[in-house]
Specification:
306 residues; 29% strand
């Protein structure tokens, strides 16, 4: 079983296996959410072998093509392509705002999917100098960047977001547990969610890659015209540098992750004025930067120096 520290989502594989064992294995694929398929599996547990039809997450190459110019190929869950195209374009600062996104055509190809994206010519010309030379693996947010400057960007500091109460964080975590359809079926995907200031989950996107899930969520937020100062992000993964960079680039000021942040993520969050919360669990959390935006209940404010 994947440990939560390693960046697992909120539903663990053994829980999913128990549900599968107690359910019919003859259900049609239509019962599955987009991004999951059924495959035969031979399971060995407790000395017993069982033939089952299991649900597994799909993963395919997705090519980003801007104004007919190939840019990057990511391995991703085949769902929410329009959100993915818009969110990636914004979080990678390919375009400055959603108004520069002129549309996307989702084109099935022999080996995967092409996202043919139209953006202003001036933006496409700048993009030529940033073309990525490698495929972006599922867990890779910076694959193929050719220079240090391209790999490590420094977004402007975000505007001051509204503060939230710690009860909102706990509510968001509880609601997200039940909003991960692909992970509930497969045990293999990450989720990124937008929570309102009271903790109510407004939007969720899932993907086998944590960066992809966040990009899809950012695209969905833009389409829904979400005010990025009105809530906070929750991700079911570690808080890596790229997750903070993407959040800050689109102006989000509070990011909560169920696993640990990296040192570079903490440094960027501090620089970009992002409140970074790690190890967000039902029994507590850790605040690494700009802690003033999370209101802690008085009963918890007992300082212990270790």
């Amino acid at each position: 079983m994947m440990s939560a520290r390693a960046g697992a989502a909120l539903v663990y594989p053994t829980q999913r296996e128990n549900r599968l064992t107690n359910s019919s294995t003859n259900r049609d694929a239509a019962d599955l959410p987009a991004g999951a398929v059924r495959r035969q599996v031979q399971r060995h547990r407790g000395g017993v072998s069982t033939q089952l039809v299991d649900a597994v997450a799909e993963e395919i190459p997705v090519a980003f093509v801007y104004n007919e110019r190939p840019h990057a190929v990511m391995l991703a869950t085949p769902a929410d392509f329009e959100d993915f195209a818009l969110g990636f374009s914004l979080s990678e600062a390919i375009i400055a705002d959603a108004g520069e996104f002129h549309g996307v055509e989702v084109v099935p190809a022999l080996a995967g999917i092409e996202l043919r994206i139209a953006i202003p010519a001036a933006r496409a010309n700048v993009l030529d100098s940033r073309v990525r030379q490698l495929t972006g693996r599922t867990g890779c947010g910076l694959c193929g960047a050719q220079t240090l400057e391209a790999a490590v960007r420094h977004p402007a500091a975000v505007a001051e977001p509204g503060a939230i109460d710690e009860s909102a964080l706990h509510l968001a975590l509880a609601e997200l547990h039940d909003r991960q359809a692909i992970n509930a079926a497969t045990g293999a995907t990450h989720a990124a969610a937008w929570a309102m200031s009271d903790g109510a989950i407004a939007l969720v996107r899932e993907d086998v890659g944590r960066h992809n899930a966040l990009d899809k969520l950012i695209g969905a937020m833009q389409r829904a015209r979400v005010d990025v100062q009105s809530g906070f992000l929750v991700v079911t993964s570690r808080a890596s540098y790229e997750m903070v960079m993407k959040s800050a680039t689109v102006g989000v000021g509070i990011l909560a992750a169920i696993s640990a942040p990296t040192a570079l993520a903490i440094a960027l969050a501090n620089e970009a004025s992002v409140t970074l919360i790690g190890f967000a669990r039902p029994d507590g959390y850790s605040i690494y930067t700009h802690a003033q935006r999370l209101h802690v209940h008085a009963s918890r404010k007992r300082s212990v120096v270790t």
